[in-house]
Amino acid sequence: MCEVLKVSRSGYYKWRDRPKSARQERREELTQEVRRVYIESRQLYGSPKVAQKLNHEGIKVSQKTVSRIMNKEGMKSRTVKKHKATTNSKHNHPVHENVLNHHFSG
After folding, report:
1. Which string of DSSP letters, residue by residue, matches 15-84?
2. pLDDT at 103 over 70
3. What pLDDT sits at residue 105?
4. How far apart are CA 88 and CA 73, in angstroms?
5. Alpha-carbon distance values, 86 to 20, 66, 83, 89, 98 (Å)
6. How many Å apart are CA 46 and CA 77, to the nearest integer?
7. Which end of the chain has less neighbouring CB within 10 Å, N or C?
8. Of 83, 97, 45, whose CA–CA distance to 67 is shortest?
C-alpha cells in the first residue's frame, strides 16, 4: 500500500502512531456535543439552534462550525408542518343535505 501511495513505511507508521492534535481533539468533542443536542431535540434542530444551545451551555462554537459538523455527519433537521384547519365547522350558516347518500342507498 505504501508503494501505491508513494509513502515510506517509516513515514506511514509515524503518521499512524502520532497523537491527535489539539484541533482534532476539539473537533471530536464538538461533534459529540452537536450530536447530543441534535438527538435531544428529537432531530428537529438545525445548525442555528444547535449552536445557540451549545453557546447557552457555555460551549463556544459558531453556527458555521456546527453546520459543517452536521453536514459531515449527515445530521439534517426534520421539519414538522403545523396542522392548519381548512374547514370552519363552527358557524350558523345552513348546511346542505348530503345528496350523495340518496343516490347510492336504494
Report:
1. HHHSPPPHHHHHHHHHHHHHHHHHHHTTT---HHHHHHHHHHTT----HHHHHHHHHHHT--PPP-PPP-
2. no
3. 53
4. 44
5. 57, 38, 9, 10, 20
6. 5
7. C
8. 45
Residue 71 CA, distance from chain mean position: 8
Write the pLDDT tens digit of every residue in 10-21.
Answer: 999 998 999 999
Residues 76, 71: Cα–Cα separation, whole Å: 7
Distance separating alpha carbons of residues 44 and 32, to the nearest angstrom: 17
Nearest to 69 by CA among 37, 103, 101: 37
Provide the residue type at 25 as one letter.
E
Round to whole Å and give the CA distance between 6 and 32: 34
